[in-house]
Amino acid sequence: MAWKAEDQVKREERRQAIMDLLVGARAVDLDDLADRFAVSRMTIHRDLDDLEQAGLLRKVRGGATIEAGTQFESDFRIRALQDSDAKARMARAALDLVEPGMTVMVNDGSMAALLGANLVNKAPLTVITNNAAVIERLKDAPRVTLIALGGTYSAKFNGFFGVVTEDALSRLRADLAFISTPAVAGLRAFHMDDAAVRAKRAMIAAADRAVLLVNHTRFGRSALHALADLADFDAIITDAAPAPEDRAAIDRAGLRLTIARD
After folding, report:
1. Which DSSP state fits 199?
2. Alpha-carbon torsion 230, 236, 237, 240, what sign?
3. What is the number of other CB atoms lying within 10 angstroms of the CB of residue 14?
4. Coil, strand or helix at 252
5. Which of 1-10, 178-187, 227-236 has the lowest mean pLDDT?
6. Start and end of every HTH deoR-type domain (predicted)?
C-alpha cells in the first residue's frame, strides 16, 4: 500500500503546484502542464476536473483559468493572494470615507477583508459583517463593536449567507456599506452567486450610503446575476482607470468614480 500513499502525495503536490501556477499566471495550458510534470494529458485532465469540482478553477478549452466567468469566481483563498497592491490602495481610499463613530457594513470578499482589517484605525466604530476574515480580525479589536452576521457558511466566499443573514440585515441600519463585485458591464454590477447577491443587496438597502469596490480588470465583464445599478452606489472605488469606453459611460451617467492611487 506504500506506493498508493506515495502516489497520493505526488498527486497532491502536483495539484498544489498547478494552483501556484494559476495564482501567478491566471491561466494554464494542459499540454504545458503534462510536459512540466512528466505525466499524461489524461492525468492532468483528472487533476483539473478534481480542482474544478472543488471550486478552485474553471476548465477552458486546452487548459484552465482562475479568471471569473458568468457562473464562476475563484476560491477566496486564491483571490486573497492576488492583486495585493491594488487592494491596499483601494482599502486606503475606502477608509477615507469612514469617520470615527460610524456604523459600517462590510461584505464578503478578499478586497473587503483587507478593508475590514484596517477599520481598527478608524475606531471607535460599529462594524457589521458576514465576512469571516473580518470577524476573525476584529473580534478582539479595541473600541470596535462587532456585529457578526450569522447564516450558512460558504468556504468558497469565506462568509455567511442565506435567510438568517438577510433577516438580520433587515433589522439593522448603517451609515456606510462597502460592497465588492467581480463584474461590471455597462452601468450595472453583476455576481455569479445568488446567495451573495441577496446579502449584498440587503446591505445596500440597510445603509444610508453604499460604496462599490471593484478592480479595474472587472469592468467590461458580466456574470449570471445582476447585483445592482451603478447609480445605486454613492461612490465607486477602483485601483486604475477602466477601459475608455467604460470610463466614458460612467462619466456620462454622472457617477462618482475614485481611482485609488499611491
Report:
1. H
2. positive
3. 17
4. helix
5. 1-10
6. 11-66
What is the sign of the dihedral through the CA atoms of 212, 87, 27 and 15?
Answer: negative
Work out the pLDDT band at 156, boundaries 50, 70, 90. Answer: confident
Residues 6+ apart with CB under 8 A from 209: 175, 176, 177, 234, 235
Cα–Cα distances (Å) from 255 to 97, 236, 247, in that order, read 16, 8, 10
**pLDDT over 80 at 76, yes or no:** no
Cα(207)–Cα(225) distance, integer angstroms: 21
Residue 31 neighbours by CB distance under 10 Å: 11
Q: CA triplet 220, 226, 232: central angle to 5 degrees? A: 90
Contact at 8 Å (CB) between 202 and 165?
A: yes
Cis peptide before 124 (omega within 30 of 0): yes
pLDDT at 4: 55
**Mean predicted confidence (pLDDT) in 221-227:** 89
Answer for the pair 156, 191: CB distance below 8 angstroms, yes or no. no
The winner for highest mean pLDDT among 33-37, 67-71, 95-99, 182-186 is 95-99
Contact indicator for 89, 239 with CB cutoff of 8 Å? yes
Rounded to two decimals, the pTM is 0.75
